[in-house]
Amino acid sequence: xSDAPLLRMExxxxxxxxxxxxxxxxxxxxxxxxxxxxxxxxxxxxxxLRCANLLxxxxxxxxxxxxxEITDPRVDQDAVRRRIGVVxxxxxxxxxxxxxxxxxxxxxxxxxxxxxxxxEHARELLERLGLGGRAGEYPDRLSGGQQQRVAIVRAxxxxxxxxxxxxxxxxxxxxxxxxxxxxxxDLKGDGMTMVLATHEMGxxxxxxxxxxxxxxxxxxxxxxxxxxxxxxxxxRTQRFLRRIVKAGRL
Amino acid sequence: xxxxxQESGPEGSDDEDDMPGAGAAAYTPSPRRLERERHRRARARxxxxxxxxxTLVTGVVLYFVVVSAPGWPRTKETFFNGEYxxxxxxxxxxxxxxxxxxxxxxxxxxxxLGMLIAVARTLRGPVFFPLRALAAAYTDFFRGLPLIINLxxxxxxxxxxxxxxxxxxxxWLGGTALTLTYSAYVAEVFRAGIESVHxxxxxxxxxxxxxxxxxxxxxxxxxAVRRQVPPLLxxxxxxxxxxxxxxxxxxxxxxxxxxxxxxxxxxxxxxIVAGLVFVALTIPMTRFTDWVTARMDRRRAQGGTT
Lengths: 250, 306
Description:
By secondary structure, chain A is an alpha/beta fold. Chain A has helices at residues 45-52, 77-82, 99-109, 115-128, 144-156, 174-189, 201-207, 225-230, 235-246; strands at residues 7-16, 19-29, 34-38, 60-65, 68-69, 84-87, 162-166, 193-197, 210-215, 218-223.
């Protein structure tokens, strides 16, 4: 991890009203690595991802993408978001568009690709994720796992430098989780840089190069997956992992 | 009728889904099911009979109440005179053509203007404050102003100004007044639609790099409009009958045509004719609205998000 970080956060602070959601968060994400954010619900994982994509303004601190400070108010936020793909917990597909239209919207309208070219690329990606036959369907005709894979294709269609995955399996039935995680595994194989917030500890342990344990808006512990899962230093991390093991999630 | 539906549904699927061997024998309804269906049929027959009887009784009672009223012979002569009805109908229909044209032109204008106002109200940023405030003031004012007063101000007030190049045609002025009021209603319908689209849709669009405007145009508005089709049609039905109000400026529409005959004959039958003609015109549109609403409800019930 000697490369210059693709994403860098420094002393990021974010509050909603009186509650401090992120407190002095530092984070370095090297290119072609996977970072897993773990922690209880409400620990700030999702907010951290939303700040990285500028869907939320940070109160203090700074974020760099590819060496450019994106929290600078003079930066073109739309241009920043074009380089970052996001997959949401609830898929957030556009219900009035077919799968193909969902996937080609941004390439066509934002990147100005001709329709034929955008559709060809979209079909390629859909094929790769096992959705070849679904291009003409509306999202509500698909299973949750299929919808989430479409959402991943939609995020990938703009060829992002960085992919943010916000608890993308949390809304899925247990038997559908596997098909979505397989996709993430493949993307790691392709060298995609990813930051994922997750409750799938086994998966985080398997794919993550770096694991950050968030607690009440603070990165309490960080390290390789082995360090954090096998030999947690902080008492709170140990307690969190013990609860997870007890619940049979690790 | 419902019975046959229930019967064919499970039976058909049973035959296909059953595993070979296990379900080789054809399905025969159990005595329990036959007994249940007999009971339901009997209940339905009883309900129909009761409904028919009560309708008949109500009708007869109403008939005698009206007919035995002391003023009935005279009322019948003034409001339900066949001769005047025959005389009025062609004139009223001729006038109705104006109402239909008004509806078409005003309908389109109302949808466009309403959409512009609704979008203006959702604009963010300090630059747009005047636009936002103006749009809010417009809807507040014209939703509160009674349509009839709005019409009188525009139809009678504008000509009184004697402005150069401004029409004094009561049809155009009446249409303008209708458009002003209904745009305010329709803007609120659109705005409710825009606000009903979940913020996560906008977030998803923005995360793909779409600008605020693109997110509105490609993601938010299409969903908002689709959801608001039933209330929009409702407003159009309402507009359709309110086109009759342009008659107060003297435009010869269906109402005015009836008015002319009434003035001459002092018989009110033409009003009844005009009223029925409007009802006849709105019924298909109301049914269409119901059909669209029902279809959307069905789609939503099937798990779609419309």
